[in-house]
Amino acid sequence: MEKVLSKKAFPQWVKKLESYTMYLPRKDGDFWNYEVIKNPEIIDLDYLNTVLSPKKIIFPQREVLLEFSTSNEEELKINEVLPEEAQSVIFGVRPCDAKALTLTDKVFGGDFKDPYYWKRRNSTALVGLACNTPPSPNCFCLSVDGSPHSKEGLDILITDLGDKYHAESFTKKGDDLLNLAKALFKNPTAKEKKDLEKIQAESKKKIQRQIKDTKKIPPKLKDMFDSPFWDEESLSCIRCGICTYLCPTCHCFDINDEVTSSSPIKGERVRTWDNCQFPDFTMHSSGHNPRPDKAARLRQRILHKFQYFVELYKNYQCTGCGRCISKCPVGIDIIEVLEKARDYGS
Amino acid sequence: MVNLEELKKEASQILKEGKVKYIIGFQRGSNGLLPVPAFIKNPKDVEKLVWDPTCVYNLTLFLQDEKRKKTKEKEPDERPVGIVVKGCDSRAINVLLQEEFIKRDDVYVLGVSCENTGVLDEKKLAKKLKGKKAKKVEFGANDDFVITTEDGNIKIAAQEVLAERCLECKAHFPVIYDVLIGEKTKRNVENPFKSLEKIESLPPEERWKFWKEQIEKCIRCYACRSVCPMCYCDECVADTINFVVTPDTSAEEKAQKIKWLEKSPVSSENFVYHFVRAIHLAGRCIDCGECERVCPLDIPVRFLNKKLEKEAKELFDYDVGFDPDKPSLVSSFKDDDPEDFIR
């Protein structure tokens, strides 16, 4: 379904969706982040990319899996806590972040379908915002099979046409959202369709960064596990978790029991994000750590995204959002690392 | 003026003479305005060295890697590491010496002066340039920065785009060095704790609200800890395995270790992390401001450390990082130390 909505009517549409929990990027100081919105009047779709991707809504950093307690008879009670199936809409999802969710879908939707992830995923509609201008100077979606107006993973894609939005729905979830405010939407005219094509073509030209010959990288990495390359490239790494925690595709987690009362025993089993850049991520209880240093950890980040994931799922586990580049405290640039790896020893 | 050629010449010479095993400095990166750390072994590569207001990093952080590497080597190269330091970074060297984390012979300090100004706050500059992209930032002649943009050069008074900590810096030249490049400039800072005034003036409940909001944003990426030259502990209470496990560590020993905080990024656990870090930096933080710069969620971490720096000054007249031979604040006491705050 393809429609056009005047910008002025946008808040009215959002108002019609009141029965949904709605998330929108909000400015907090110098950066943007997703927040639940109550007042559609203050909606602003003129935003740069959010610090944390919408992954944090579908796969929250902290999630209770079950509660446990002992009653007076000392009988252990266990209670599974599944997320509420609240119908939600996330507005303004950038195409790279939507594509990233299609990648975490593969991970949480394998032989074991993770019920916590899918409860949220299935009840959430993603309304994307095409990137007419790149939201970050480090965007490189075109180099990893993405595009600034890709529909992958989205229910609706909105494109800014100046005084109006072009909105295209690709799924039933998307159609439902548009149908809730039928009167506000018009069918696009031939001129509007032409404008859209023009904007889409121009948007691709505006992306400043690219990886050349990305295809050559996965086969090259295959033979680089033992290369001294990783020692050299990781020299300036400071072992923080920014690159992975801000990544829209990273999905590793840890599970811990958080005891809130020891007598009677009461607590929760909690899943939290985990981070392959932390030293304790691979620490064995024997004290042996198979990834003992930052070189091994940087290698893991790169190989997981550009070799293992490609072998397993035929996709790069990177959508080119550029967050890890923009926010790295010491300027480690994944594009540079990949290109150096591609050319290493040749 | 700092003469970059002088720095390169010195660096090249000490490498050629074999005085140092390598040099840690700044070089241009592949992308963005800020440089990246350089680890230079070959005298030819000294050409890559840069020194300008974008050199914000505190490179003394990398002395931790060097030390860890050395302890693993059977026959370590005992020569010092050359390191480029600004005023604040040099105070970090002093604290590391005080605490005997490093020895004086471990480092060959290439001190560079901040030219009476300091380093850049990238966000302030971005606001100032209103969308224009800065390509290069250099020290100007009149306490200003010369910014090269797509459409020509602009001069901006350094005060307007300096990192907050530089506005409160008491010595924008190295206090310890083997070679000093540039001048020992002197600037009077009326109130080195001015940035704290606003938050200190808030009533406790509002201050609590402020910190709660800030700390709740934390995603525990630990970048503030990772970037800190003083956070060199092998074990940290913030990690799930908060002690060093070796094959000899018994199950009992493991079981006896206390889990101080959960991995969940909720306010109680986040507070424990940030408070533990702040307390452990009392009298040790040299205010390089890196913790705050790297925070992806813009949590004003520096305020916590600055507040403790102020306490150290007011209660014990202690200035951090000015004298490597003085005992450190937390490991020394005087009979007449104030104690009326102990209840």
Automatic annotation (TrEMBL), chain A:
Name recorded for this polypeptide: 4Fe-4S ferredoxin-type domain-containing protein
Cited PANTHER family: ANAEROBIC SULFITE REDUCTASE SUBUNIT A
Domain 4Fe-4S ferredoxin-type: 226-258, 308-340
GO molecular function (one): iron-sulfur cluster binding
UniProt lineage: unclassified sequences, metagenomes, ecological metagenomes
Spans traversing the lipid bilayer: none
SUPFAM superfamilies: alpha-helical ferredoxin (SSF46548)
From TrEMBL, chain B:
Xref: Pfam families: Fer4_8
Cleaved signal peptide residues: none
Sequence segments annotated as region (Disordered): 323-343
Gene Ontology molecular functions: iron-sulfur cluster binding
Name the record gives this protein: 4Fe-4S ferredoxin-type domain-containing protein
Domain 4Fe-4S ferredoxin-type: 208-239, 276-306
